[in-house]
Amino acid sequence: MDITDQAGEIRAGEELDAAKVGRFLKDSIPNLNGEIAIKQFPSGNSNLTYLVKIGETDLILRRPPIGKKAKTAHDMNREYRILKALKPVFPYCPEPLAYTEDESVMGCPFYVMERLRGIILRKDIPEEMKVTPGEMKKICENYINVWAELHSIDYKKIGLENFGNPEGYVRRQVEGWSKRYRDAKTPDVPDFEKVMQWLYDQMPEDSGTPALIHNDFKLDNVVLNPENQTEIIGILDWEMATLGDPIMDLGSGLAYWVDSSDPDQLKMMHQHPTMTPGAMTRQELIDYYSKKTGRSIQSFRFYYCFGLFRLAVIAQQIYYRFYHGQTKNPRFGWFAYGVKILEQVSSQLIG
To answer: Do the bridges between strand 96-100 and strand 211-213 make them parallel or antiparallel, or are there none, so unpaired?
Structure first.
């Protein structure tokens, strides 16, 4: 059985005009020949991702979601530019191939990149993988190894010194995500005011040397080699990458990481196989990262709480579009429950 990531039918309301897309791609990318077929990847909660097949060539197309979007989110040109700059020094990036702002093609900017064919770990390990505890630990170590490698890149050397403003990053994140939550709040979710106030009161200074950060580094954005399932061959979804505090990046990513000792309601929400036998705990990952990078992490509670809150904001922004009928994806209707659970867990964390 093929356990590599597969695309399926396109969701209602998210169809593309195959003829227009095909003409653009054949004009933009050399040596494309044959009929075009388009499918959609079912996962992903933000930008929409499609598999475009032209003849024997597989391409990945990324476009913004349908409906109301956060003002600074879903910048296709920005995502394309970072992949262009990173690919020569960070081989885990997919190669970007074409970008356009010509709205006559599909009504919005979009870009196309190579397809990285591999295994993506979602809620549970596929039974066919037969991952041993030793292999699961190796996947965790490689996860941190690649993350640490990203944080070690000299972003000035690759022309990304203006890609963000790392000074005052922690404060801007706390204030910015608090504003985003208030802007996206609907009447059926918690107000999060206690958590937002705690984050504001407890926020530390920036942790030191800034870095190029992914801002959504989680297991289902990692592509594993089908021939060696502990090897990472790709990192996906660069839409939120910027320059900032690498420990904040660690906190944002590890908010997705659920331990077997976590509250039951959080374990019910798990979206990645982080409780698989052999998987490292959050604290083990933090310690391993600190050892790999030499970065001292005295207390992770603020960063983890921020990560949980930020995850709730992302979920609420998506739920806002569902609540107001701007997206028809039925799974987004459940996101309000996730927001409530994240509020409960973060409130328990801060006491």
So the answer is: unpaired
Question: pLDDT digits over 270-323, tens only?
Answer: 999 999 999 999 999 999 999 999 998 988 999 999 999 999 999 999 999 999
Separation between Cα atoms, residue 52 and residue 47, nearest integer Å: 16
Residue 60: which region, alpha, beta or left (left: phi > 0; alpha: psi -120 to 50)?
beta
Instruction: Output the six-digit token pair for 224.
Output: 């594993």
The answer for residues whose C-beta is within 8 angstroms of residue 93's C-beta and 6 or more apart is 83, 86, 87, 234, 235, 238
> What's the CA gap between 282 and 176, in Å, rounded?
26
* 254's tokens: 């590890």
pLDDT of residue 2: 54
> CA–CA separation, 308 vs 347, rounded Å?
10
Q: DSSP 3-state assignment of 216?
A: coil
| pLDDT tens digit sequence for 54-73 | 999 999 999 988 754 444 45
pLDDT tens track for 203-231: 999 988 999 999 999 999 999 999 999 99
Domains, the chain, with CATH or none: 18-114 (3.30.200.20), 127-350 (3.90.1200.10)
Sign of CA dihedral 66, 68, 69, 71: positive
Q: How far is CA 315 from the centre of its chain?
A: 12
